[in-house]
Amino acid sequence: MIVRPVRHSDRRPLLRLAKAMRAESLIPFPEISETRGWAMIVAARWLPNRFYFRVVEEKGRVIGFLTGFKAGHTYAYGHAAVHDIWYVAPAHRGSSAARRLVGDFLSWSEEIGAYRTVMSVHTGLRKDRTGKFLERMGFVHMGGVYCKDG
Q1: Does the domain formed by 2-136 have CATH 3.30.530.20?
Q2: What is the pLDDT of residues 84-143, one digit of tens each?
Q3: Which residue of 32, 90, 98, 110 is most buried, as measured by CB atoms within 10 A?
Q4: Structural domain boundaries of the chain?
Q5: What is the pTM of this model?
């Protein structure tokens, strides 16, 4: 099992995983856009210090992915590494896939000089179990995510 940067050839498996994630989510999200996904792959390839997009692969198959970005502050210097999407296919949960992705994201955060790495559980799925996992990875629970559509 390896974590590696996203490739253009990952478009189809990533689209399949993104659709599976949306189907599993307890919270509604906008319709998936293949064009937007392609744009994020290109952005991560061209601006690797600004955008994070990695996949976890097992036996040549993409089984999960994690995306994130470098976020600045309005009234302070410095920046944080903030995760956007994190998904591992159900058949591979409980393996080392999630740990490897988060570990790689932490390494990227350090590489870009972030003072903080932010992960959240914003799909409503297994938030207690995922929270405990993140705590074992060294994260501290700080508040929560509140959403209002419209």
Answers
A1: no
A2: 889 999 999 889 999 999 999 999 999 999 999 999 887 666 777 888 889 999 999 988
A3: 98
A4: 2-136
A5: 0.89
